Amino acid sequence: MRYTSTRDSSLSYTFEEALTSGYATDGGLFVPTDLPKLDSLTLKEWSTLTFPQLAMKMIRMFISADEISDHELGTICQDSFVNGFDESVGSTVPVRRVGSSFIVELFHGPTFCFKDLGMRAVVNMLSHFATKRQKCLTLVVSTTGDTGPAAVQAVNDVGNPFMTLLVHYPEGQISAFQRKQLTTVDSPYVQVASFQGSGDDMDLPIKNMLATSGIKGDDKFMACGVNSYNIGRPLVQMCHFVRITFVISSQCKILITHRNLCNPPM
After folding, report:
1. Which of 86, 141, 159, 255 has the most C-beta neighbours closer than 10 Å?
2. Residue 115 lies in a domain
3. pLDDT in tens, 89-138
4. Domain range for residue 56?
5. How many structural domains compose the chain?
6. Using CB atoms within 10 A of its CB, is residue 36 exposed (0-12), middle (13-18) or buried (19+)?
7. How far apart (Å, rounded) are the C-alpha atoms in residues 11 and 4?
8. pLDDT at 207
9. What is the DSSP letter of 263?
């Protein structure tokens, strides 16, 4: 699988280059050059998988085994979607039926927000590449509440000496709980700073900084943005949407079957 830029489709990148850069060299966003196709048989097989198993199957379609092997990807999915999640609820992404509605619980991760579902896998993949290249990688985040704590927890849990995190948040514009999540973690891998302004005011400075960084030759340092523009985030977060679809479809079929049995046609 190769990746290109939303601004120039002639550019071509590996998954590693896309993940560790954040933005393409022309300032565009990374997108896959091709979208994988799935048939009904494959979807039926996937519908019985656990969330980590499903995530591995889906992420595998977008990453070459030459970059992350099956064993490595399996370990990443286990560390990302099992470790740190509340095992007592029986699923990484529980789906509850309430009356005629289905409620999806995305808050069972270590920071109680759905950003854990994308951030932990992205951080684990970045850790994989940082170790593989023996390069110091600094992750950069601007947060208005959820993304920052998820990144702080994930980086601290990985504990990779090749990887650090710098988090920025707007002073006085996040909840007290989220501020404590950011500022009370005693970690050598994390630095947190507040700034004056709105949540969007750090976007351009970070983008400008990332434009001068990247994997170049024998460089021993690189910076990477891990906000939602990073291609890893949507690739990973699509997994829980597919899982939710499987669960709801299965429950709806059961309900329809029961109704037919209770109310046979005249």
Report:
1. 141
2. yes
3. 989 999 998 888 899 999 999 999 999 999 999 999 999 999 999 999 99
4. 3-259
5. 1
6. exposed
7. 5
8. 85
9. S
Whose tokens are 């509605």? That residue is 101
Phi, psi at 241, each rounded to 5° = -70, -40
Note whether 29 and 23 are within 8 A (CB).
yes
**pTM, full prediction:** 0.90
Q: Is residue 265 situated within a structural domain?
A: no
pLDDT of residue 259: 46
Amino acid type, 76: I
DSSP, collapsed to helix, strand or coil, labels residue 68 as: coil
CATH number of domain containing 130? 3.40.50.1100
Quote the tokens at residue 258.
């029961």
Do 186 and 176 form a contact (C-beta atoms < 8 A)? no
User: Distance from first CA to last CA of the chain, Å, rounded?
Assistant: 54
Cα distances (Å, whole numbers) of residue 152 to 101, 157, 206: 34, 8, 18
Q: Of the listed 37, 44, 57, 115, which one is catalytic?
A: 115
- Structure confidence by residue, pLDDT tens digits, 163-193: 999 999 999 999 999 999 999 988 999 999 9
**pLDDT 10s digits, 48-87:** 999 999 999 999 999 999 999 999 999 999 999 999 999 8
**Annotation says 135 is catalytic:** no
Q: Is residue 232 part of a domain?
A: yes
**What H or E segment, with its residue span, contains residue 168?**
strand 163-170
